[in-house]
Structure formats: C-alpha cells, structure tokens
C-alpha cells in the first residue's frame, strides 16, 4: 500500500479541519528563518488581555524558551504568533514579512502541541507527508525518510500511529510540522504529557532536531529544568509580559526580583540562584 495516496477523509474525522500545525506553505529556502514581535497584545472577546506588549526577536537556528507559571499568557502569545488568536495590537514578522493580518496557513509557521494530535487514520509516513502533498512523490518520499532519520525512527513510515509510544508520537508530530520547511516553529509544552524520565531525554533530542532544522523556534514550558535544557535563551513570562530574557546566568542576576524569586522557587537548594 502506498503511504502517500491522498487519504479518504472518513465521515466525522474533523482532525484535519481543526489541525493548524501542518498545512503550511512550502517556504522557499531563501526565506530568512527569523521571527520578530513588536508590541504584541492578545485580547480575548470577553475583554481580558492575556498578552500585553511583547517584543521578541528569534534568530535563525535559535530556540527561545518562554518559561512562566500557568496562566501567564504563554499559550495566548503562541496562538497570536500563529494566527489562531487575533493580535489586537502590535506586529508579527516572519522572515522579514509582516504576517500580523495573514491567516495561519500563509504564515510559514509550524506548531507542535502538548498532545501531538497525529491523524489516527494515517500511518506515520502519511502524517509526516500531510503538509507536503504538493511535492512530487519521489521527493516527498525522500523528505519523509530524511525526517524519519532525523527523529531516529527510520523504517517507521508504514507503522500505525496507535502503536507508537508517547515520545515517539511527539517526535512524529515534530517531523510533520518540520516537513514543509517552515521558517518558524512554535512548540507549546510539547513534553508535558510524558513522564519525567522520558522528558529529560526527549528534551535534549528535541533540541538537537530543532537546532539542526535551522528554524527560529519558540518553545513554551512551565518546567524550569526543561527550559534551560532546551533553550539558547529563556524568556520569563509573567502576567502577559516577557519581563526578562537571557541565559541562566544572566537571569539569576536579573534586575527583576520577580525573576530571581521565580527561579529560586523552582530551585530552593540552588545557592547560585539568590
Ligand atoms: P499559559 O499558557 O501561560 O498557561 P494562557 O495563555 O493559556 O496561559 O492563559 C493566559 C490567561 O488568558 C489566563 O488567565 C486564561 O484564563 C486566559 N484565557 C485563555 N484563553 C482564553 C479565552 N479563550 N478567553 C478568555 N480568556 C482566556
Ligand atoms: Mg498554556
């Protein structure tokens, strides 16, 4: 059975309609892999403003992790960047193009969520190939195989997704979002559903994969150890703002007492965080 046939969509299977991760434009390789946010606000219909004026620049191949307590606005910011929520003020720029008013699928942004949301009626290869249906079959097959090697699952193309472990499923979700070669990748708590031992290994693996893809990545977590394992820079998110951003050693000496307290709260025995 070929894995790349346009799939029949079973009645009631709404996943492809609600999935926002994969059907991206295939950005030409010349698109600079950068993300710039200027004064981004996200206000919900009920009037609640979850993001108040975020500025951020992410360089090609860089992973910025947004670390913050639950409710600090991390997911709202990612959803604004992706166009899943309206940015009510400010701008989002991908590869030098202002995408603030563009629909999600035109932004050149890949997304990975906590639950990878693989399509259950497609095998592994079919999931990864989802966003590259326009490619000719040999190139598409080559791209899928290259991505399977990248995520350390060579030979898994024909596997049913129900046979994958949680960690394998998240790596397939990552490969699917990277397949169209997006300049920007957003990951919202991609390891939160997995157990702690697995998370440590996988966070390093994710870092290797994302870095080698050369994308500008924003990775959200509430887990401090994971944040510093994955990040080039960590932005501390608090009440809808990035209140400081930097490396671990920069942040432990932050001018903001909230940042110092936040790091200390998660590391009560760490004398360097004082
Ligand atoms: P985080 O991802 O950091 O946990 P969220 O971005 O999910 O935070 O939420 C930030 C704030 O926005 C929370 O107070 C949350 O209740 C609120 N919020 C999230 N989604 C909506 C929504 N659709 N409508 C109104 N408020 C929302
Ligand atoms: Mg969230």
Write up this protein.
Helices cover 31% and strands 22% of the residues. Helix 4 packs across helix 5. The chain is globular, with a radius of gyration of 19 Å. A hairpin with a 5-residue loop joins strand 1 and strand 2. The protein has helices at residues 15-18, 74-82, 124-128, 137-150, 166-178, 196-213, 224-230, 248-252, 257-266; strands spanning 35-43, 49-58, 63-67, 89-94, 97-98, 109-112, 184-188, 216-221, 233-238, 241-246. It has 274 residues and is an alpha/beta fold. Residues 1-27 have low confidence and may be disordered. The structure holds adenosine-5'-diphosphate and magnesium ion. The site of adenosine-5'-diphosphate has 12 residues, from helix 2.
TL;DR of this structure?
The chain has 274 residues and is α/β, with parallel strands linked by helices. The protein is 31% helix and 22% strand.
What descriptors fit this protein?
single chain; 274 residues; alpha/beta; six-stranded mixed beta sheet; four-stranded antiparallel beta sheet; 10 strands; 31% helix; 22% strand; globular; binds adenosine-5'-diphosphate; binds magnesium ion
In terms of topology, how is this protein built?
Elements: H1 15-18, E1 35-43, E2 49-58, E3 63-67, H2 74-82, E4 89-94, E5 97-98, E6 109-112, H3 124-128, H4 137-150, H5 166-178, E7 184-188, H6 196-213, E8 216-221, H7 224-230, E9 233-238, E10 241-246, H8 248-252, H9 257-266
Parallel strand pairs: 3-8, 3-9, 6-7, 7-8
Antiparallel strand pairs: 1-2, 1-4, 4-5, 9-10
Bound molecules: adenosine-5'-diphosphate and magnesium ion.
